[in-house]
Every structure is written in C-alpha cells, then in structure tokens.
Amino acid sequence: MSKAINSLRAVSIIGTGAYLPEKTVTNRDLEKIVDTNDEWIYSRTGMRERRIARDDQATSDLAAEAAKVALADAGISADEVDLLIVATLSPDMFFPSTACFVQDKIGAKNAYCYDLGAACSGSLYALETAKNQIACGAVNTALIIGAEKMSTFIDWKDRNTCVLFGDGAGAIVLRATGAKRGVMKGSFGSDGSLANLLWTPGGGSRNPMTHEMIDRNEQYLKMEGREVYKHAVTQMTKSALDVLEKNGLCAADIKLFIPHQANARIIDAIGKRLDVQDRMFLNVEKYANTSAAALPIAIDEAAKSGQLASGDLMLLVAFGGGFTWGANIVEWTK
Quick check: 51 and 65 in contact, CB under 8 A? Predict the structure, then answer.
C-alpha cells in the first residue's frame, strides 16, 4: 500500500481562465423589477452587480470561452486534454452532457468528458476528481470548468433570490508536474437530509415538467436563506480546519483563502472564525453568486491580479445545495 501511495504524482494547476458575459445588471436595475433597493441588497449580501448571459448563450458557450483562455494560459492545445469535466447545475440540457458540447466547441477531440453535479461545490469536487485521475496515472492533462447560466432558472419576481445570482464560467488546467505538493489532500462532506433548504424541486423524474408544475413556479430555485447561511458558515469553517489538519498545516501557512463567493456576510463570518479576514479573497460585489463557476473565476482573478506567487499556498473552500461542502489546499506553481 505504501509503495502505491508513494508512486502518486503531484498535480499542479498550469493554467486558469474565466469568462463573464458582457451584460451587467446592477442593484439599481433590480429596483425596477422587484421590491428591493441597492442598500438592502448590499448590506445583506455585499453584492453591487452581476453578469447576465445573452439569450443565445448556453452554459456550454460560457464554459468554452473560459476553457480557451485557460488553455492559452497553460500554453497547450485542446487536443492535449485527456479529461474534461464541467461542474454545473444549469446544463444545456438533461443530456448529452454539457462537457461533450464544450469538447466539440474547443476541439478537445482526445478527451473523455462528463458533467459533475455538486451545486456550488461542483468545481472543488471536479478538482479533486481530476487530481486523483492524474495522480494515479490514468490521465496526464485535465481541464475542469465551472460554468453556470443561473439566470435561466431564477424567479425574477422573488426579491429574496433573484438578487443573489449571476452567470459566468471559470476553467482550470491540471497536469502532473515536479511540484513538491501541488493539489493537496482534500476534505469533503454532504448531507442529503437538508436538500430541501436549497433546491429546484421541479423538472426531474421526481416532479416532471408539466403545466401544473410550472404554474406552481417549481422550475425555479428555492432557498431558505437563514438556514443556508448557518450551515454554510459552519461547514466551510469545519472543512477549512479539517483540511489544514490533514495536511499538517495551520492558517498562518496559507497566503490566500478563496471561499465560495456566495455572500459577503458568509465570507466575513468564516474569516472571523478562522482569524484570517485580511487574507480572504472577495469578488462577490462584482459577480454575485455564480455557483460552480465562482471558485475557478476567483482563482483566475487572484492569480492574474498578482495575489499569488509561485510557492504560495491557497485554501479553497465551498458549500452548495445537497448539501455539499469541501476544502482543499493548493500550492501555486505558475
């Protein structure tokens, strides 16, 4: 067993990319369609604006644009990708997978492709999945993408949820390198008994698409905000502490903490519990909650704004519907 473990390869991020739609919807814009205002939204969420995709753009279109940027950043061609995973809760359609559409759009003809569903935690789960595939030698290069067109299943008459979400995509290229640590041991968990606190109840095999279902607005995202807040803060804090312990590290070793960009108040609460407020990355003001896209967008922005240098450690932590949650630590090697 120890011999097999020792033979695992270190896996590093070699490229990142992001795509945000051109259209910006501000809090002032939302004041015109629901009973809300800029001060109310910002004080509760930390959000000022969000990006909304065009009607003719699907999730795979957003994902493909982010993928192209990440591949260029990595300095590789699409046909070098062996594995392509798209994390999303807003796929183009039930099937085929959004990943297959992305494969065709970018020309990743040698990759095998699938979608991964873990809601807002999806990109972190995809990172863990791809890392393990590369580490054991099953593949050499993986492209993981978090992409969402949240605007398609948000109830724009519900002021409690429509203000929270935006559209976008982020992509990460992974490959085995000579890094000392690379993507390190992760910590993950789920609790399906709490699924009804954050879900879209209609449209699947449990509640098929019918006129009656649509009349009840069950095709839209539903959320119990206060309960989600409590569980998100608790589980992301626990995951961060657990992943530090698993890797023999402490908070002082981490250069940058990148949490899921769900809500500035959640991020602030986690920062206070970990006593790392000065190292918490935050871009929710510009993009709102882009679900599975949030982490890779944040990683790309942090790297390209000079907040990460080679050898730095960043801690990634996420929480999403399911409930799902997790954390990982990554040695930045670019």
Answer: no
- 253-256: Cβ within 8 A, 24+ apart: 253/313, 254/279, 254/313, 254/314, 254/315, 254/329, 255/279, 255/308, 255/309, 255/312, 255/313, 255/314, 255/332, 256/281, 256/302, 256/307, 256/308, 256/312, 256/314, 256/315
Residues facing 258 on adjacent strands: 316
Sign of CA dihedral 326, 298, 23, 36: positive
For residue 210, which phi and psi values (nearest 5 degrees)?
-140, 165
Question: Per residue in 18-59, pLDDT tens?
Answer: 999 999 999 999 999 999 999 999 999 999 999 999 999 999
Cβ count near 107 (within 10 Å) = 15
Active site residues: 120, 260, 289
Q: Which of 88, 89, 29 is nearest to 64 (CA)?
A: 88
Do the Cβ atoms of 112 and 99 come closer than 8 Å? no
Give the pTM: 0.96
